[in-house]
Amino acid sequence: MVRVIMLSPPGAGKGTHSRWLTQQTGAAHISSGDLLRAEVARGTDLGRQVAGYTQRGDLVPDELIFRILAPAVVAAARDTGGYVLDGFPRTMPQALRAAQFGADLALTSNAVIYLTAPEEELVSRLLDRARRDGRADDTLGVIQHRLAVFAKETAPLIDYYRGRGILLELSTDRAEAEVQADLLGWLQAHAVMPPLAGESGPDHAKSAGMTSAG
Length: 214
Ligand code: ADP
What we know:
A 5-stranded parallel sheet has the order 2-3-1-4-5, with helices on both faces. The protein has helices at residues 14-25, 32-42, 45-56, 62-80, 92-104, 119-133, 140-154, 156-163, 176-189, 202-207, and strands at 3-7, 28-31, 83-86, 111-116, 167-171.
């Protein structure tokens, strides 16, 4: 079963591709941002603490993130045996603690997908989303801050996972279907998931022109 981490700056498509991958595989989709927004919407004490950070585009402290995320990951593992982690981990301490947690529960991640797009494309997608969905943190100032937070806190994870040999870097500055073909091909070629019915497995992956940064 796939146990995948989606790692990407805001606007690169981790929500879209996480949802798609979950539909393809049956693994649970765990979005840290969605869980945080749900907690804020419930108006709990925890939600009130979280809201201050998310509105500014700052990272929520690791302790709060683990309190919210750990039960979801354990439930996902129990229910589906796999997960697509969308938006977590985002700091080196989170990544190291997640690795320990994964090892303890035999839930170690088997792939990390790093989605990229040029910065002006990221900003324009997020501003489009703001017009569509009205998400509170999709204003230009907060978007720019979130991108800076990604560069400082999250970008170091790219080399960490590349060093573990499980990183796939994919440009999302092209048609969604192409991104998905490359993603599927790589996961199959690396035996993270079996070929889908009607496909020919790793050969299909090679012919999809995939590139691996790991
Ligand atoms: P985006 O990737 O566009 O910023 P998300 O929905 O993934 O959107 O995250 C929204 C906000 O939730 C972040 O700006 C941050 O405040 C908080 N958040 C999400 N995941 C984490 C995490 N793993 N650690 C700390 N804060 C997080």
